[in-house]
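Explain this record to help learners:
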Amino acid sequence: MAKTFAPMAVTFVESKSMLKSANVRINTNDVPTSFILRQQKPAVSLPGPTGDTRVVTLAEYKEAALCLAEAFAEDEVARYFIDVPDREHWTEQERWDLHVEILEYITYAHILKGLVTTVGDDFGAVALWMPPGQNMDDLWTIFRSGMWRLNYRLSTEGKRRFFTEFLPLLHDAKHATLGARDDEAWYLVYIGTKPSGRGKGYCRKLIEHVTKQADAEGRACYLESSNEANPPIYRKFGFEQKRTVYLHRAEKNVSLDIMVREPVVVEKKKMVKGLKD
């Protein structure tokens, strides 16, 4: 399983007029102004359905998000913005509702700008990918997906963890790891399997659905793993651990393992008629 959120780089200060026209007020003091909207590059071609792996549509975003919510119900990173001191009075149902809500925003944004795939009966497993040259940082995607609501739904401490710690950490780790290839790699933002779908090879199908195209394009694949049990699984698909980064604002540090899969070059043997060994 990969980590929860893709980095959003947003300068809310420069966008006050746009926010005002949408009749939405955002407290810019709670959002670091260092997040800058990045120019979108032309979209790359996305892999189509293969076998029983298919692309999730906008009409299905809630079902896909619920699959991820079940898969990450106890994930330390997913809970990092919800289990905060200034929300100790919240019931577990309120925490669960916010957990699902966040994943609905994330899933919707990736359907708009990335690639969301599923496999198995009733969304047994779901993967969220961000293709090379793409991100969900533009205001249109932020508003349409509902991501802007995080500024209201997260508590004060939750916003500090999300905006001032988590997003900069992910941005810096990805850039430090990939360097000049930062904007050229496939980014596995999220992958999860329902408890009822585990042990059926769903994750392999979802990962290989994209890695085959990445190999053909000569591109790397990147992810952050928030579960210490998962790096050995990812290594089976060619990912290698590059570094570990930490979130520090909770009672104990929360780790994220940074992993990269280099493209596999398959040499094609040319058969020349009449050629002898």
